[in-house]
Each structure stands twice: as structure tokens, then as C-alpha cells.
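Exercise 7b. C-alpha cells:
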């Protein structure tokens, strides 16, 4: 059997919202707030935290801090505490405030679905995506995790997969921690290197269908369907395995630079879904973009 390819300019295959969220609104209350970011590249400055007293981030080995108040900023500098300039996705951070206000973080959503813990010890983190974290199922391995802590604004909640430690937390009247929401900061004390599923839910960038019925050379001129690449009326081509799809920029008519890390294999019914995780360059993954869709099938 010989292999041939069908290339179709697709201008209306995209749907849904943009892959990359760019804002996140958080509420800061009077006192100490343990918050978290789901966005990368959030700039810490006096405009964003103008009503805060101080902002603190733990790097894994030391603190960084910021204050919009000149006097406090000088004291932090004199204490040799590095200035906090950026907050990234998965970072938890403390905000101390004397009033209640909202802040809107501006940045880009991550493409990774996991938060990597490359070192042991204490980590100040925050959930990614939109679902938050189920504490019991995520941190069930007592060989990896010692304790997980969240500040509610007035008291601590904690969880330990170790039964002895869990009993001690209960005896100390520390409320059990079961859920961490997006926007919450939380502490993790881990024993060994591990990764946390950040539950990033990547929406489709492109979704379509390669016909399993048939295809002729004239099919590229047939009317496009809403989520189907082409219509078919003959049966002279039969797929021997699920179709594969590769994307290219609309200007790349010679197919020189594939946009995807590898061709995406469709399901047995010919349908396929492509997300930002499939792209070599995540900035190319945008539901507002158009692509050349190149399908690979086998011909008798």
C-alpha cells in the first residue's frame, strides 16, 4: 500500500476560548492572606499591591519580599531580604494588609500540568488550572509527603498521610485540610523529590474529523463542514489505522516547519483533538489562529 497525504487549509476549525488565560482576580482581606497564582510572569509592583503592607514569597531556601511603602522597603533592604519582583504559576505568597481590596494578576497560563518539587523540605505553592486540589488523593503517599498546611485567614488547616502525624494534628485541634482551591496558597513539606498534578485543563485548540469513508483528489475543493475536514461520497480510500494530523502555519504551504511536536493520532472514528501541550511553541497555540491541517492516510 502506498502512502499519500491530503492538505487542507482550515480557517474555521477552532472553537472555544483562548488557550492562555491572562488575568486572575484575588481578594485580599485585612491581616495576613496566603494566596496563590495560576499565571506566569506576574510583575510585583506598587500599582498591583498599592494597598498592601508587605508581600512575601518563599523560594525554597529563603524569603523575597516587597512593600509599596518606602520606609518598609528600606527596612527590608537593610535586612538583606531580596526584593520580590515576580510571581509565577504555582507560587504561593503572603500578603499582609490593613484593609480589604481586590488585585488582578496579569500573566500567561502555563502549559505544564504538573508542579515539580525538585528539592525536599518546605514549598509554598498554589494550584494550577481551574479545579483545585483534592488533598487526600494528591498527597496520599506518606513516603513522599510529611504535612500540608493552608491558612484560612484566621487559623490553620493541615493534613498528613502519616497516621501518627495525623493523630497529633487532630489532638492539637488543627482542622483537617481536604481541599485547596485555585487562588489559595499552601505549604507542602516533602521528604523526596516528587511532582504534583496541577490539574491544568487544556481546552482544545483544533478539533476535527478525518473521514473514514473515502477520499479522492477532488475532495480538497469540497465544501468545508463545521468540524469535519471534508465531505466524502466514494469509498476508494480506506484508512488502515487511525489517521494522523500535523499542523502548519497558513503561509507554510511547502510544509517545512511542523507546529506540533509529533503528528496527533486520531481515534478510530477519525476524530482528533489538539491542545497546547502538543505544540513545539505554545505561543502558536491559539483558538483564534488558522492552520494548514495535513492529514496522513493509506491508499489501496
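Sequence design result:
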Amino acid at each position: 500500500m502506498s502512502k499519500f497525504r491530503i492538505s487542507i487549509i482550515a480557517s474555521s476549525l477552532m472553537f472555544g476560548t483562548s488557550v492562555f488565560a491572562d488575568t486572575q482576580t484575588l481578594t485580599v482581606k485585612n491581616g495576613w492572606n496566603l494566596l496563590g497564582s495560576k499565571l506566569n510572569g506576574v510583575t510585583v509592583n506598587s500599582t498591583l499591591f498599592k494597598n498592601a503592607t508587605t508581600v512575601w514569597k518563599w523560594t525554597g531556601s529563603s524569603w523575597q519580599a516587597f512593600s509599596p511603602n518606602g520606609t518598609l522597603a528600606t527596612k527590608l533592604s537593610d535586612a538583606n531580604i531580596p526584593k520580590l519582583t515576580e510571581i509565577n504559576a504555582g507560587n504561593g505568597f503572603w500578603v499582609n494588609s490593613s484593609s480589604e481590596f481586590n488585585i488582578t494578576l496579569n500573566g500567561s497560563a502555563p502549559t505544564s500540568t504538573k508542579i515539580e518539587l525538585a528539592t525536599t523540605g518546605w514549598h509554598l505553592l498554589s494550584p494550577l488550572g481551574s479545579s483545585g486540589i483534592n488533598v487526600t488523593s494528591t498527597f496520599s503517599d506518606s513516603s513522599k509527603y510529611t504535612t500540608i498546611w493552608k491558612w484560612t485567614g484566621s487559623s490553620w488547616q493541615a493534613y498528613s498521610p502519616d497516621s501518627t502525624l495525623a493523630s497529633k494534628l487532630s489532638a492539637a485541634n488543627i482542622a483537617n485540610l481536604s481541599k485547596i482551591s485555585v487562588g489559595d496558597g499552601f505549604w507542602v513539606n516533602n521528604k523526596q523529590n516528587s511532582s504534583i498534578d496541577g490539574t491544568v485543563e487544556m481546552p482544545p485548540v483544533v478539533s476535527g474529523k478525518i473521514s473514514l469513508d473515502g477520499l479522492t483528489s477532488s475532495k480538497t475543493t469540497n465544501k468545508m463542514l463545521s468540524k469535519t475536514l471534508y465531505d466524502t461520497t466514494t469509498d476508494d480510500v480506506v484508512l488502515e489505522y487511525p489517521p494522523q494530523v500535523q499542523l502548519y502555519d497558513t503561509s507554510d504551504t511547502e510544509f517545512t516547519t511542523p507546529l506540533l511536536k509529533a503528528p496527533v493520532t486520531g481515534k478510530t472514528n477519525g476524530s482528533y483533538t489538539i491542545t497546547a501541550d502538543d505544540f513545539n511553541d505554545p505561543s502558536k497555540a491559539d483558538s483564534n489562529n488558522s492552520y494548514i491541517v495535513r492529514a496522513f492516510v493509506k491508499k489501496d
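Instructor comment: The first helix runs from residue 70 to 78. The first strand starts at residue 2 and ends at 10.
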